Amino acid sequence: MKKKFKISLNYIFLIILGIVMIYPLIFLFFACFKTNEEIFGSIALLPRTFSFNAFVNGWKGNGQFSFTNFYVNTIQLVVPTVAFTILSSIVVAYGFARFEFPFKKILFSIMISTLMLPNAIIIIPRYIMFKNFNWINTYYPFIVPALFACYPFFIFMMVQFFRGLPRELDESAYLDGCNSFTVLIRILLPLCKPAIFAAGIFQFIWTWNDFFNTLVYINSVSKFPLSLALKMSLDNQSQISWNQIMAMALASIAPLILLFFLAQKYFVEGIATTGLKG
Amino acid sequence: MKQITNNMEIINKFSNSLTRKKLKEYVGLLYILPWIIGFSVFQLYPFIASFIYSFTDFTMLNIPKFVGIKNYVDIFTKDFDFIQSMKATLIYVVLAVPLKLVFALFIAVVLNSKLKFINIFRTIYYIPSILGSSVAVALIWRLMFMKKGVINEFLSYLHLPQPDWLGSPSGAMVTISLLTVWQFGSSMVIFLAGLKQIPNELYEAGRVDGASKPRMFLNITIPLITPMVLFNLVMQMINSFQDFTSAFIITNGGPMKATYLYGMKLYMDGFYYFKMGYACSLSWVLFVVILIVTLVIFRSANNWVFYEDGGKN
After folding, report:
1. B140/A28 Cβ within 8 A
2. Which of A24, B84, B154, B252 would you call most buried, defined as having the most Cβ atoms within 10 angstroms of its Cβ?
3. CATH number of A22-274: 3.60.15.10, 3.30.930.10, 3.40.50.280, 1.10.3720.10?
4. Could A148 and B25 be called an inter-chain contact, meaning their C-beta atoms sit closer than 8 Å?
5. Distance in Å, alpha carbon of A67 to nearest chain B alpha carbon
6. What pTM value is reported for the model?
């Protein structure tokens, strides 16, 4: 009896915590349908009338550029970055996991230690360098580092995954006449799918949400991704229409929420295989 | 004759494996070549350049001139914002990171106690970690914690005092710290994975020896989870020292620069006032602070982190 009581107490605690955790998102959802006055001065969650005006008006953006533009921009920024991150991380991780070469240990330690290198310290020279390349206001500052495996987190994640695959696989493939590249493509890659998904999802979310780097590298509205567009809609209005801002905030994170629910088993797998942060 | 062909074969095999080995050495390097290039150009070079710029008066518009350690002297003697923002950042890190980790560990332990529907709870608690760093969530936070926002309406409904969250220095600090703590899910998942690896026999042995539950928690669970605590502590600390979005969007560094986090000061000096050389010095001061704190944590780890192999690693 006492045990049952304790267990139900646990459940009540977990449920209340769950509601608290998710409340900001529920609040966000209903705030989109409220009038601006309704958002303040009341704890009522549901709007008096459901109105889609906030979405319609918010979507117009600043008049010149709408959220359709910002959405397209975000996709143009995120998709190549994610694709190249996966590609380069797999190739580099394969090199670290399966081959012996001079200075391997040192190089690997350097790679791991860059995990802890603060972005703050390299951002200014990077900005100056990209400015000299004429890359400001383009998405190259995101895409090119991805192409050259500058996201050590994902290299490490793939290395861990490769180490879990038996080497006998490679060796028997070599005997069957594969070379090192075809071993990677034909034998290992199909087995890597879970890790690839996990890496892709994390990188997708991080790039999608990235605010600081976009703020630094992108400064013309025509190139704004969603994060900057949201900040802009906050700054541009003298009388802030919170319902419109909330509607666009929801529109900007809806794909992430959807992705999370569709692919949540990969999240947990990704964290479990690397033991790293998410 | 047979002997000779045999020998030839062996020699052939040997030289084959030799060239193969040689080749393989280069093959490995070839595969990591993209990283070597990327690391040199986009990480190592900026790292060194940042150090060199930190001794110049570079502003993007002028030709940089070496000014010695003037920037560093200015930081510590003339820049009152520096002291303020370092103070705010330290308060923020000390407030938010331990709270987040304690919370994450606590929930992980509750979730690990063989309840049903754990996956559902884990999923729900994890969502904030995915969205937390976005501008969208920062905007929700700003709206909810306004003077007449939903948080205060809720408090007034419960007849509790309604602080001016964004208008008072301490309230603003609590607001952005709460946003960090809200994202405890990622640390929780790591703790949960660690808890799952603790062998059940240990608890059984404890039970046989008549240990109480709190005692088993203190003497079995906590020691075995300390490596995860160390890892989470270091990573979260490094990240929190550089946090930017929440302060920039929710409080705009205010009020009275109470939440003028170091990341925000760096951004303002570097990309708003374009004092690039000066901002590089600021970033090196931050780097040294992070390095010292990390080293202190790792040093102290010898005393509180439990290694199964007896600490030889």
Report:
1. yes
2. A24
3. 1.10.3720.10
4. no
5. 14
6. 0.89
